[in-house]
Amino acid sequence: MGRMKQSKLFTKTRKDAPKDEVSKNAQLLLRAGYVHKEMAGVYSYLPLGFKVLKNIEAIVRDEMNMLGGQEGILSSLQDPDIWKKTGRWDGEADEVWLKTKLANDSELGLAFSHEEPWARVLSEHVSSYRDLPLYTYHFAPKFRNELRAKSGLMRGREFLMKDLYSFTKNEDDLNTFYEDVRVAYENIFRRVGIGNNTYFTYSSGGIFSKWSHEFQCVSDAGEDTIYIDTEKRIAINKEIYTDEVIQETGLEKDRLIEAKAIEVGNIFKLGTKYAEALGLTYKDEEGNENPVVMGSYGIGIGRLLGTVAEILSDEKGIVWPESIAPFKYHLVELSGGDEAVKERADALYQQMVERGIEVLYDDRDAHAGEKFADSDLMGIPYRIVVGKNSVGGVLEVVRRSTGETLSMSYDEVLGS
Amino acid sequence: MGRMKQSKLFTKTRKDAPKDEVSKNAQLLLRAGYVHKEMAGVYSYLPLGFKVLKNIEAIVRDEMNMLGGQEGILSSLQDPDIWKKTGRWDGEADEVWLKTKLANDSELGLAFSHEEPWARVLSEHVSSYRDLPLYTYHFAPKFRNELRAKSGLMRGREFLMKDLYSFTKNEDDLNTFYEDVRVAYENIFRRVGIGNNTYFTYSSGGIFSKWSHEFQCVSDAGEDTIYIDTEKRIAINKEIYTDEVIQETGLEKDRLIEAKAIEVGNIFKLGTKYAEALGLTYKDEEGNENPVVMGSYGIGIGRLLGTVAEILSDEKGIVWPESIAPFKYHLVELSGGDEAVKERADALYQQMVERGIEVLYDDRDAHAGEKFADSDLMGIPYRIVVGKNSVGGVLEVVRRSTGETLSMSYDEVLGS
Predict the structure, then answer these.
(1) CA-CA distance, B331 to B98, in Å (whole number)?
(2) Could you read off the pLDDT of B241-267 as tens digits, one per residue?
(3) Per-residue model confidence (pLDDT) at position B151
(4) Residues of B with CB below 8 A from A143's CB?
(5) Which of A38, A73, A104 shows the shortest C-beta gap to B79?
(6) Is A248 in the same domain as A339?
(7) Distance, CA of B119 to CA of B269 (rounded, Å)
(8) Strand partners, B137
């Protein structure tokens, strides 16, 4: 579906977002018809939003495959047994779970993460050092019992997440892969258009490692506070912002700038905790059994979509980067009832379709003002207008991000 | 990921399926490493199974797009309000729901179907007869509180479903589209390899229409019983198998053959029930408000995968049709330590990779018997063996489905 006539698209834009929607990203996405709000913290994707989601997914998948990741998809329904083994079924963890019950009264969980199930799967397939290292990932829904859910797509009770897991023989191999993932994540955030705003950020670690790391995208809508060295492109999360940490990370206090930010990714060294609890071991070269060393690497795909909408937008609407836009071109016909103009626009659309160019064709019987307002709100990167004043041979193409008008030949557009 | 070295694939085959697994499809898929069983009725997809799932999804998506379907994805968490309006939250419906609770104690459901949420979404976008007809679909997980779950991938507590919904002005438009879907479904079952075994089957209807229709695939593992006219390729479900129905469907009792069958798809005319309950109306040419007429059309993607594994398999393992196989070729190297042979196999793999040919390369250091048994179990359509006796210029290619050996030139393989 690289092309579509807007008269056939079932979603409509609307002037106002629902009154209970306070977050800018959700307001814009709702008004432009990209998403539907099912309830607080739960959004459905309508055709345009679905296309953006899939485009982001494709970029993330590409980077995961280049890391050697093997894709699958694990279930949402979770067996309590494996979570009890790691101590994440009851107690503190209970606050985050959404749980459900079968007819026979046995309790199940809805996955809020997937360390335990992946470790169990691997325990059935890994036995020797020859099997390692290996990396698995999936795009799977996550469910969390959030108390507050007021940040639109940025904090959901249900959301799509890409989670990657590494399984290595030892800490050295983990550290090597961890650095590879850091680079892949930087590629992803650059490719979806927020690379300049996103910082590698020290955050609280766990039993195994001193720190974990987040990728924090600067935005007033963020729920986190970070301290940034803009030159080194490194930051520290407020949670661990102490003189000691500043020193240990090699940063200087008076060069750090405070900012609100959205956590768009995180990477953790997990050590052997999960492997030990779930019997995930391998035999080394000497024949000894060792627990596998794990790492986990997450990116919320819906949150990333929301972050781009939040950051790359202006008073008129969304400004999608070309890499993830639902279409590259928005072809707008302004015939005002003039059949010759309509035919010219129809013909151009047909030519674009034949060449496989991504285009949304606004063929609706509507006023110019309405069409332009919708186009700005929807945020497709290049707008081509075919109207009464369009001169043959040259197309006026407006770039959404800057508003500048480019004069392009048919060949330039059709060759793209 | 159109190619892979088997030494890198994290899944291993196994001789025996878990003892509690009684269904043939799940036994085969578990033994071949395609899926992991999380619990009764809940399966996760590992890399090979994930590839088959995505191949089936691509075929279904292609047919949905040709029908004019617009793809999105609605949430799993469900707002009780819309289901209360149609009477499907409590009472009888309660048996099928898996429900959960938020921290604030409010109850939510996990989608067992999506008529209500799609009708609500559409009620925000449809207002005029000019907006209709329109068709929406998604691939979304479904959750059901199944009492029994012993048929492997064929009856799940969590499963991926493609559901398509039609929204039309009147019954005539519904009937026209219903016939189009019937053809699309026949295409799908043919394309995934079970067309010959699958019958258009009359089944019980509802308030609105006398009958609904199922697509039933003949198999001893089926949970349904149908009566088939093999010539007309039409069947009647036992549930409604009466003299009256036989007569009304134009069939003849003594031509009908009883068989067990798996329901791989179903199509329903819903009428205006959901639209009326959820305020989904349109203004007609005369300015009158009318409820939208709906239809719903489902295919369980996981069940379809399980059905193919159940039906297209022999005593050695699975026999995937080329259209949905994880790879087209299984390249098996039998060097037995002979470096020259190994190099020849490596070179062929490299050439196949460069041409974008789908190939799994068994480069493992293992005995011929083990490699052949794994290959038969995994069921990739064409096996190419490179061993000591392989003569230069000619490749021996064994077709999994028939066991016949084809002599093919390198060019024939590389050109494919």
Answers:
(1) 45
(2) 999 999 999 999 999 999 999 999 999
(3) 83
(4) 76-77
(5) A38
(6) no
(7) 14
(8) B71, B164
The per-residue pLDDT for A2 is 86
Cβ A76–B158 below 8 Å, yes or no?
A: yes
- What CATH number is given to the structural domain containing B263? 3.30.930.10
Let me know whether B207 and B296 are in one domain: yes
Strand A394-399, strand B313-314: pairing: unpaired
The SS3 of residue B226 is strand
For B40, nearest residue in chain A (alpha carbons): A79
Q: Predicted confidence band at A103 (pLDDT cuts at 50, 70, 90)?
A: confident
CA distance A225 to A241: 10
Tell me, yes or no, whether B142 and B250 share the same domain. Answer: yes
Same domain as A245, residue A188: yes
In tens, the pLDDT along B374-396 reads 999 999 999 999 998 776 778 99
Output the pLDDT for position B2: 86
Mutate to test the interface with B, among A12, A21, A38 (most CBs of B within 10 A): A38
| H or E segment to which residue A212 belongs | strand A211-218
Look at residue A94 in the predicted model and tell me its pLDDT.
83
Same domain for A309 and A342, yes or no, is no
Reading phi first (left if > 0) and then psi (alpha if -120 to 50, else beta), residue A386 is in beta
A98 contacts in B (CB within 8 Å)?
Answer: 100-102, 108
Residue A14: inside a domain, yes or no? no
| CA A311-A312-A314 angle, 5° bins | 100
CB contact under 8 A, B45 and A99: no
Tokens of B243: 């003299």
Nearest residue of chain B to residue A1 (CA atoms): B65
CB–CB contact A1 B71 (8 Å): yes
Q: Residue A320 falls within a domain, yes or no? A: no
Asked if residue A149 has pLDDT above 80, the reply is no
- Alpha-carbon gap: A407 to the closest alpha carbon of chain B (Å): 33
- Please name the member of B104, B110, B126 whose beta carbon is closest to the beta carbon of A100: B110
Question: Are the C-beta atoms of residues B326 and B3 closer than 8 Å to each other?
Answer: no
Measured CA angle at B134 (ends B132, B136), to 5 deg: 155
Task: Give yes or no: residues B333 and B308 share one domain.
Answer: no
Range of the domain at A400: 327-415
pLDDT over 60 at A239, yes or no:
yes
CB–CB contact A102 B98 (8 Å): yes
Domain boundary among A288, A314, A340: A314
Query: What are the tens digits of pLDDT across the range B307-351?
Result: 999 999 999 999 999 999 999 999 999 998 899 999 999 999 999
Nearest Cα residue in chain B from A32: B125
Number of domains in chain A: 2
For B138, the enclosing helix (H) or strand (E) is strand B134-143
Alpha helices in A355-394 (DSSP H): 368-378
Partner residue opposite A39 with nearest CB, options B38, B79, B122: B79
Q: Say which CATH number the domain at A404 has.
A: 3.40.50.800
- A203 is a domain residue: yes
Span between the terminal Cα atoms of chain A, in Å: 18
Q: How far apart are CA B4 and CA B401, in angstroms?
A: 22
Give the whole-number percent of chain A exceeding pLDDT 90: 88
B312 in the same domain as B352:
no
Identify whether the C-beta of residue A111 lies closer than 8 Å to the C-beta of residue A142.
yes
Closest residue of chain B to A74, computed from CA coordinates: B44
- Same domain flag for B334 and B310: no
Name the domain boundary from B317, B349, B373.
B317
State ipTM. Answer: 0.96
Question: What is the SS3 assignment for A327?
Answer: coil
Record: contact A71-B1, CB cut-off 8 A: yes
Instruction: Say if the Cβ atoms of B101 and A102 lie within 8 Å.
Output: no
Is residue B54, in this structure, part of any structural domain at all? Answer: yes
Which pTM value belongs to this model? 0.97
- Measured between beta carbons, which residues in chain B are less than 8 angstroms from residue A366? none
CA distance B244 to B266: 22
